[in-house]
Amino acid sequence: MDLGLQGKYALVTGGSHGIGLAIASSLAEEGCHIAICSRSRERLFKAENFLKRKGVEVLSFVADVLNTSDIEKTVSGILKKWGTLHILVNNVGGGGRWGNESVEETSDKVWSDVYNKNAGAALQFTRLILPAMRRQKWGRIVTISSICGLEATGRPWYVVAKSAEISLMKSLAVRSELVRDGITFNSIAPGTVMIPNTGWEEKMEEDPKGHRAMLDKQFPLGRMGTPEEIANAVVFVCSQKASFINGSCIAVDGGERKGF
Ligand SMILES: NC(=O)c1ccc[n+]([C@@H]2O[C@H](COP(=O)([O-])OP(=O)(O)OC[C@H]3O[C@@H](n4cnc5c(N)ncnc54)[C@H](OP(=O)(O)O)[C@@H]3O)[C@@H](O)[C@H]2O)c1
Fold first, then answer.
1. Ligand 1: distance of its center to the CA of 226 in Å?
2. Catalytic positions
3. Which of 26, 39, 118 to mutate to test the pocket of ligand 1 (most atoms within 8 A of CB)?
4. What tens digit of pLDDT does each residue of 130-148 get?
5. 252 ligand 1 Cβ < 6 A
6. CATH match of 9-196+226-252 with 3.40.50.720
7. What is the pTM of this model?
8. b/e 191-208 (16+ beta carbons within 10 angstroms → b)
9. pLDDT of 151-169, one tens digit each?
10. What gap in Å lies between CA 78 and CA 188, rounded to an integer?
11. If you measure from the C-alpha of residue 21 to the centroid of ligand 1, how many angstroms do you get, rounded to a whole number?
């Protein structure tokens, strides 16, 4: 299937690791030029070299999305170099383990930082990039939420932030002045994804039997997802073929979520 992505310009926020890097890599394999942003220069450098080997242009920006000025500099840097952007993947996020089990003991700062890192950043990138997409009458905005945005499994501040991402995409998707300019707004809700180098390997080695039992109990497929499995869905939603997918939240969770 020709996804029609050759030569498109894409930004994947938090694209230097995990799900974001897999999305950047899959879009590059379809011929997209890629911009990524994240905090660690070293990780960015590694990711940039990895992506360049796919034969596309790669831009990288050191940015902390908790700083509005870093978001502004990233978008203006892209527009200065490329003049436009076709695809925005709002991937940066997390904070699901911030705070502690007690709502009373968890500070307002945790609530606001988790919100800003997820939905707040998605909103700011989206707002800054929309004028360029409207001018060219084509755009794809995809936000990486979570099944925690669809059901109350997780710490409340993370559930609130992830469900806000879904409602942000949906509420933009019903604005006819935006979608009639050829822009679609969707979210992807991953289930638990095994990200290399985030501690899972050690857990498996420490207690292989316990880990196996947990996987069997918690996940219908007996395993977590891979970043590439999330990326496959994102790439399709970004493609020309997905022109009638707008305002959707697509769960990519191997059946982990219990709700309908
Ligand atoms: N993994 C899962 O099981 C899972 C499940 C459902 C949804 N999700 C969602 O998927 C998205 C990606 O998660 P992941 O598990 O792939 O995370 P990850 O492996 O920790 O990667 C996060 C990426 O974002 C960057 N980043 C983190 N904080 C940042 C900040 N303040 N400013 C700029 N960049 C920042 C990181 O680089 P630096 O650290 O160098 O900044 C890295 O490139 C998140 O929105 C998450 O909520 C993940």
1. 14
2. 158
3. 39
4. 999 999 999 999 999 999 9
5. no
6. yes
7. 0.98
8. bbbebeeeeeeeeeeeee
9. 999 999 999 999 999 999 9
10. 24
11. 10
